[in-house]
Design goal:
Length: 138
């Protein structure tokens, strides 16, 4: 059976159990871990308003290009990587620039939560989802 339940947490009390294909769960979990990395780690060691250093900016650009190449165009992760590249100067200039792109209306509901595949039953949602990113990229 390549369907499993997912529990939607993240945004506001209650959970929704629906049956979704395993492949969709993998992309969902990858999206959650990528979003968590971008919003909580990229600027975490910088003073407020600081830009990313050149080497980190270059690495981010290359990583976003890899995501755009590897993720199917119909996925939110591909769209997000595309928008981050289009707004790249603002994204690397400050955390605010990054959050302005991530906070766009089309990404509403693109929160950090994991399917049951990576959630409570599997334990370790973030690392499970990040492994999904790595598998998709390879």
């Amino acid at each position: 059976d390549d369907h499993a339940s997912t529990s939607g947490g993240g945004g506001g009390g209650g959970s929704i159990d629906i049956s979704i294909p395993l492949a969709e769960q993998v992309f969902h979990d990858a999206k959650s871990s990528l979003l968590a990395t971008l919003t909580s780690s990229l600027y975490s060691q910088r003073p407020r308003g600081a830009a990313l250093p050149r080497d980190e900016s270059t690495a981010l650009a290359e990583f976003l290009d890899l995501i755009r190449w590897a993720f199917p165009p119909e996925t939110q992760v591909h769209d997000l990587a595309e928008d981050l590249r289009l707004e790249y100067p603002a994204v690397v200039a400050s955390e605010e620039g990054l959050l302005n792109v991530v906070g766009r209306e089309k990404y509403t509901g693109m929160g950090v939560d994991w399917s049951r595949r990576c959630g409570a039953e599997a334990e370790g949602g973030y690392s499970c989802g990040f492994w999904a990113v790595l598998h998709i990229l390879s």
